[in-house]
């Protein structure tokens, strides 16, 4: 399952899995002075959790780039995948969109995987040297915080409470943060 690719976030999530109000309740904070920093810790906690699990929580758009036509199936590095948006390749004549009807995608797999339908294959083309193939897709559990599993939201909240209690960020992130995330699956690519 080892693939060489470059992953780029195209559109970040519109909301976070937890709110500042929820963190304030957990951390026993009753004032509004630190709402901005709490919001920052929520974003940081979510990104750390997503990186650790190699998942996307709230709907977001990703591009995965290859310098070549990869061997299939291609495992998409951020799951769960909601849908495939486009597959393009670039040769000396420019960029070309591939017909998505020639592909099948296993959205139930984690990570999601992409392959050709029977009788289809990569075009015979001389690709540009870098980022020759781009696969764009939508990933995440859904559009709202309610779509995100509770264990993940608990881990992000735990991270925020730990940051509040350890303003200098001294010491490691609590093991419970990682244990909550491990309990809900981790993708190894």
Order of helical and strand elements: EHHEEEEEEEHH
Cross-sheet strand order for the largest sheet: 1-2-8-4-5
Total helices: the number is: 4
Which percent bin holds the helix content? 25-40%
Unreliable segments of 5+ consecutive residues:
none
Describe this structure in words.
The chain has four helices and eight strands, in the order E-H-H-E-E-E-E-E-E-E-H-H. The protein has helices spanning 20-27, 35-53, 150-165, 175-182, and strands at 6-11, 60-66, 74-75, 81-91, 94-97, 103-106, 113-116, 133-139. Strands 1-2-8-4-5 form a five-stranded antiparallel beta sheet, with no helix packed on it. A three-stranded antiparallel beta sheet has the order 3-7-6, with no helix packed on it. The longest helix has 19 residues, at 35-53. The protein is elongated and about 60 Å long.
